[in-house]
Amino acid sequence: MKLPFTTNLSLDSLSERDRRTLLIGGVIAVLLLIFIIVQLDSSVSHAHKRIDKKREDLAWMRNAAPELAATGPIRSGAGESLLVIVDRSARESGLGSALAGSEPSGPGGLSVRLQKASFDTIIAWLARLSQQNGIRVESASIDNAGTPGLVNAAVVLHMD
Predict the structure, then answer these.
(1) Which of 71, 117, 118, 159 is surrounded by the fewest CB atoms within 10 Å?
(2) Could you say which DSSP state residue 4 is in?
(3) Residue 38 to residue 67: CA distance in whole angstroms
């Protein structure tokens, strides 16, 4: 049985202009495919490097934790108010531009708001506050700020 609609399309049946267009389109498609593959490979490689770095950091922290825990908190801000210690340490940690405000939160407490701050920097800052000043986190609310790695945070700190 013969189908009513059949085509025998070959390169020879195309005009010179159509062949050239087809060739250019094919080359562009191949180059685009190569570009996408290279970008994906680069992105995956970058992600693997970041993961390896985070694993190294975690291993270092696990090794250093017992030694730091044995020394206990070091109170460098003896006699200073919680507000002064928190503000100074935030600025020293590079979070000065992210500080959006702070207000008292009960006796010995301070509520701090940070906007578009690096998550890693916030965590390191909070760890330093705890280790160096004995300041603990009572509660924290952390939300994505729209950019990878940046967050908005509301943290309630308490000085023991």
Answers:
(1) 71
(2) S
(3) 44
